[in-house]
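Researcher: We're teaching a course module on how sequence relates to structure. For the next exercise, students receive a sequence and then see the predicted structure as tokens, so they can try to spot secondary structure elements on their own. Here is the exercise chain.
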Amino acid sequence: MDEQTKGNSVSSLQWPDYLVIGVMLSISASIGIYYRFTGGRQRTVEEYFSADRSMSTVTLAIALTVSIVSAVSLLGVSAENYAHGTQFTLVYFGFLFGAPITIFFYFPVFIELKTMSVYEYLEKRFGVKARLLTSLANSLHLVLFTGVVLFAPSLALEATTGLSGNMSVLAIGIICTFYSTIGGIKAVLITDVFQCMLMFGGIACVLGVAANELDGGLSNVWNIAQKGERIEFFNFRFDPTIRHTWWSMMFGGIALFLSYNAVNQIQVQRLLAAKSVRVSRNALLLSTPMTMGLGILTSYTGLVLYTVYKDCDPVTAGQISSFDKIMPFFAAEKMSKFPGTIGVFVSGVFSATLSTISAVLNSLAAVALEDYVKPACRRLGVHFPDEKATLIGKVLAVMIGFISLAMAYLAKSMGGLVETALGVSGAIAGPVVGIFTLGMFIESANETGSLVGMITALSVTLWAMFGKSKPIIPNLPLSIDGCDESALHNYQKVSESTNATETSPEFYLYRISYMWYSPLGLVITLIVGYIMSLATKRIFHKNTPEPDPNLFIPLLASRIRRRRRDAEKTTNSQLFVLENRR
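Model: And here is the predicted structure for the students to work with:
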């Protein structure tokens, strides 16, 4: 444990807190066991990965929400609003535009496809190379993202219990791998409902205790946040190097929503587990305001925590090492007087992690089975044992679980939770959305164009993300004027690092905000892919047959079908004329 957290190394948990956490983990594991030994007992791939297409609207909507909202959101978004203000909150309003785009353009294509892996679309549209490239890229994205998500709850345990963050990561990873592996997607979806309640419960406990601590309750939070320069929504400067602006939040929010919901194996697999197409659409529509509500509530919690610590910032004072620990620090310092509330808070953070990682494990296992194992068997001429498919899927889920654990230990050195998670997501998911969009929206796109477009986009966005360490982001005004001597730990060292001025790297690409990575990857894939498709059409794809109209968005598909019908009528008319002449 670092020096800044030594002051909180003694556990703040009491027996009611341990009881709440124990019950939460036991229920999560029990749900997995229950679905292992009920129904079809997860014997078929259809049941294990698609829940026999039996899920209802509300259950599915909650599952869609919590698979996006992870512990990164609960801890990272509140920390973002605490240190940098409310501009980030606009990302959730970008979701409002992303939802109808997903429902009316992307989702109908996958409904027609009816496949276990979304990347099968790319094989049908462009070929097996496009499928493998995109599948590998997205798998890398999910594994890296899972590492960040799995690392996040260790911050809560470290601050509230003094337990090693490494042990926290190990315990959470093993429990999550256990119930999601043995119970399949049914266990994952039902557990999501239970964990969603705990996530809201954890935030409610923080807000309730804060209201008790503050004079006048929560009524003055907004005014105090305004005085502290935390309220900002309308920064309309169109400068991609500015970390957060109205433009980057809206366009970044739309692109992130598409990457999370439109072409993501996790969400599409969930949507295809519904009883009907109508249930899937209603679930996605319902999940959007739920996700926004939870995100906005978490953002508000960051302002509440700023109100609590406006005169004695624990990061500047050296009591904690990062703003991502501000909510766990509050729990440890203020909530112990209410037995059980810390337990609910920690359970909420755990739940946010478990729900996201379980979704990733299940979807990655499905992708590995459909995109790697089965094709490898076909190429090697080995018979794939369909009766063993579920067992193989479970083994793959366990393997992916341990890989994610390894990534969690690397996540410690990758920076703030929100910026790291969204930066990784944007750098890889943007080009992934791009290649699907290229295939669905542009009829003239071909395999060469799609591959060159996506590789170019990945090269640029990953270069921007990992090419050079990013400068320290200056915080909004923070104060320690109200701290007593006992609250000051290593003040001089910490204040020097947190108040450092931002030094911009010379190369422009390194200065672009992480919120532009996803839109940038999407646009580069489309532009380069389209140009290369036109340039190579007569060289490599001269005799390529026209693709199935079902592989395009509904409007384009209707136009293609109409054109084909007109062509058939013309051909038939010409044949009729020739016959008469004879």
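Model: If you want an answer key for the exercise: The chain has two domains: 3-409, 552-582. The chain has a mean pLDDT of 80.
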